Amino acid sequence: MEKNIKHLDIYELCKQNGVKMTSQRETIAGVINNSKDHPDVEKIYERANKKNNKISLATVYRTVKLFEDAKVIIKHEFKFGEEKARYESVTKWEHNHLIDVISGDVVEFQNPGFEKLSKKIADKMGYKVIGYKLELFGLKEACKKIK
Ligand SMILES: [Zn+2]
Description:
41% of the residues lie in helices and 14% in strands. It is an alpha+beta fold.
């Protein structure tokens, strides 16, 4: 994760947005805050359940949905063989993802040049860009040789 990509604190955002926090929700918020790997619901559940074994998979599903609706986390559907939705806390600025198609690792990066270019393209078509999503799917150098 790049240092300059700052993820916002889910717990703080929930408090600001008036989302009622229970101790289980707090635990789940903490797990997502501290996960740098864009985990799916099952991974979030594993980690949250380790901290509090009363937390069920159903609770994690409900809480993730609640956080998503409150716009304090971002849902990603990194489509490249893998169909599971993955989550992360929101960030102040948009950022991009490179997905390793073998390991499923997600690397975050920023690309101001691309942002400028996308604005220029939209501008020419009479649009103002309000958001974009750039996902790169890659293979590590070592794997490239196999191909
Ligand atoms: Zn990210």
